Request: fold
Amino acid sequence: MGNKNCVPELFGGKTDTGSDANDRPRAPKDAETIASPSKQAMKSSTDPEPSSSAPAAAAQQTRKPSTPGALKRMEKREQRRAVTASLPESWRLLEERQRAVIRRVAECERAAGYVGTNRAKKTAWDNARYQGLGGKNYLKRGKRGEAWQKEIENGGEGAEEEDGGAMVERGNEAVADGVGGNGGWYAGKSDEEIVADTVSWLAREMRGMMIYRDYREMYDRALAILEKWRRSFPKSVWIRVVKSGRIAKELNECAPVIKHALDRVAKMPVPADPDERATVIDLCSGFGYLGMFLSEMLDPRKVKMIALVDKQWPMFNAAPKSHQINWDHVYGIDGWDPEWPIKLQTRKDDVKQAGQLRQIEKHVFGKHRGPFIILAVHLCGTLSVKAVEMFNLHENASDLVLKPCCLPGWNHTYTHDTWELGGHCIPVKDVCAKGKWKGNRWIGPPRSHLRHKFATWCDNLYKGIDVAESEKRTEQILIQEEGGHQNTFMFVERERFSVAPGAPSGVYAPRVE
Reply:
């Protein structure tokens, strides 16, 4: 249907049969009032239609689909009608109202000459869209009813909805270019003002977070690092790093992980052979905020590289595409080369794919000497299983920090009864959740209903970590303070580990032809 952003015609003074004087879709009286012409043609001749003649009604009654495909489509339409008729009245009216809004938006787009998937023309369309409705986030967030009306009245700043959705697997979430949102602390400011005000704004933001209360020393060091980056990064790179506003949230949520890495590396001796320094692996790194701060905070005499692993990175030596993460802050741009105390290296790998796991084995675990510290923060669904599996199958992995983010989707129950992890069997139905993401909106049971299931999920992951009980622990660290329950951290420290690459095993072993 194309972009669902609104246009002036939708909220002008002109009303139609689907809108009232306040520009809100009026609830139809019944399902037939919103039926398309093709659906109206399928109505039974028994329906009262004063303007229809008897011969026409008879012809309409005997008309049948001419192809199997048309028959199948007719059956599906009848099924949808039956489902709609069986819904409670309030649900049915809401569904009809949403359909009316979507249909009206499509009509306005066609009337205004919307150009579909042409990227250049679509950009011009987005720039010229109706102002004050929250930009691209409007309708994408599924605003309806009273929230929809408040958003219009407040110029796009509608009342926030309670996030009651369950965090269920939705794949790797990445920041394509590090710039997001349609307003915020930088609204109405020039690039020069953004560059000048950034660190002070981030400091104010973090004063209300856990990092300021419980990790004050790290907070002070982070501000000094941010000020260093602000002075050394080119303006375009710095704005990309901070303009999304996510850096404060990411730093706050990664504070326990950074603390563990700092303490663990502090205990390590400086190796006589520099090649035996530790390597940090940041799984599903996203933009790479965690690795960036670790590069500045860890001791370069003990750590030689930080690998940022994410499937949204571009291929090596290839320019980033529009849907991929921009890596200018990692490798530099236009003659500027960042001076990272510890080398950052991006890797485009999907850890759910066996072939790409073998590439990680070949180019990371099998190539570098020294211990590996695996950091797995905010891993969605079965990615947490892959992180534990990576740790279990590598004797040169000295540490694992795991913070599960969300539950696996219910679709896994159709293919598996159990998952075996480190000699422990995970019952799939006990840890998977029903529901799905539709755009950016969760359609499923509320978060509170899945609290117990998330605890079961974390408990099974903990049991699947194949080390002694004395070498692992779990902690509840209050990161999400506004109703969230994903506050479980697992810290694993092997007492005995190898510094030399071992023989690959399991899914990391070479495939036998």
